[in-house]
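Human: Not sure, check this?
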Amino acid sequence: MRHPHVLSLLVLGTIGLSACERSGEAEVNRALQDLNVADESNLNDVMLTVAEPAEAVSYFTRAVANEPGRIDLQRGLAKALVRADRPQDAITAWQTVTSSSAATYEDSVDHADALIRANRWDEAEAILDTIPPTHETYRRYRLEAMIADSNEQWQDADAFYEIAVGLTTTPASVLNNWGYSKLTRGEFPGAERLFVDAIRNDPQLFTAKNNLMLARGAQRNYDLPVIPMTQVERAQLLHTLALAAIKQNDVSIGRGLLREAIDTHPQHFEEAVRSLRALEANVQN
């Protein structure tokens, strides 16, 4: 009499085991899927940071072709094209991204950045104007400052540069840009201070060191400042100072700085040698 009951228990047990197996498989599949997503995300990050730019473009081009609806891959392609110095292609890619309902304000900032790289300043300005002022990021205000510079709106440029500096923990590059803006306006002491600040924030930023020489040379100050520099950098900076002196018609000082640059460089300094030969030939003529 108990056999049907036992049989029922066996059937229920079998069903239960089957359900457990299916549940376990589902959990494993979900875990594998999550792992694949994590691996892909890590690979995407690698492609956008340390991979060769052309390799990154190829990777994201294939990925977008396989899954054209994924905005994260479209975004990766646009960023990879910027890294590969292909701004025109990047603009097209960013247009695809920003036309999506999932686009963000930062995508618009990236789109404007690509337009500036392609020298399409008016279009970049128009895009930035569509972003609400509540979207306050370093990159947004750095671009706003650059556009104000291009329009010679110096007061706006200074305000935007100041905001950008306050929105980043690594302000060296924007300080250098701000200094160069001051340099082009002829505000040499202000430019010098900003270049010094840039170097203080990033002692490896050679562009700021070189720009500092231009600012000092424009004020007829031909002494090397006390800043960190290698021997090669010292020679290059002396060369820049020499050219600045010659431009100011301080020819004898320029000649001396060129000779010092040649003597300072640990190898043959061909560029300085050519400059000195050209100067001496011009003086003789």
